[in-house]
Amino acid sequence: MPGAINHLCDSREPEAVSEMFGAIAPRYDLANHILSCGCDFYWRNRAAEIVAGWEPKQIIDLATGTGDLALLLQRKVTGVNLTGADFSNKMLAIAKEKGLAQTVFADILRLPFPNDSFDCITIAFGLRNVQDWPAALGEMLRVLQRGGHLLILEFSLPQSSVLRAMYRFYLHHCLPLIGSALTKKKNAYDYLGESIERFPNGEDMVGLIKRSGFAHACVQPLTGGIVSIYTAEKT
């Protein structure tokens, strides 16, 4: 029942979001590449370059999905022990098939790791789907070591009023139709636009990260602000 799923996803209930992403898993990568016009390769590559510069040894990639960012980090970061975590087994199965060495089924709000387990946490296009953003950031802070780094790659809204209007038209009128043609799951792409509109942008997100206990939080807009990279540290 698409209407019922949309209603649940409006409140980001974990079971509904997991079910929705599981349903589109087989064509998720193809849809991402087409809907972003290939820009998703650039976005993830920029994120991986930043992480590689930190030279981490223990990375957890949360909401890893089909593993695209994690696999890139696996190649770019020398000597890293990397784990991809997600709460969709269907997504994790594809990530494993693609070569992601370590995966774990996990809910971001209840991570199954001790305090101070990782020196780097990454999450790409996943935080906005979580039911409680401050609680999720709090869990990330808990499992991150002091001196460790956080990187969030997420959709945002352009600052330019003209670009924002064009992007919103694409987001709400074009993207759901193309996504539906590719995956047969239009509700998932209606939800995508709604979730992007609802998620904090730019300095609002930086403020949320800081209030969650992280230091040195900053934002780097990409592609006119359609996507943003947020970075921070645990001190």
Q: What radius of gyration results from the CA coordinates?
A: 17 Å
Order of helices and strands: HHHHEHEHEEHEHHHEE
Percentage beta strand: 15-25%
Distance between the termini: 46 Å
Mean of residue pLDDT values: 90
Structural class: alpha/beta
Largest sheet: 7 strands, mixed
Low-confidence stretches: 1-11
Helix content: 40-55%
Keywords:
alpha/beta, 20% strand, seven-stranded mixed sheet, single chain, Rossmann fold
Please outline what is shown here.
This protein has 235 residues and is of the alpha/beta class. The protein has helices at residues 2-10, 14-24, 28-35, 39-54, 68-76, 89-97, 133-143, 161-183, 186-198, 202-211; strands at 58-62, 81-86, 103-105, 118-124, 144-155, 215-222, 227-233. The chain is built from 10 helices and 7 strands.
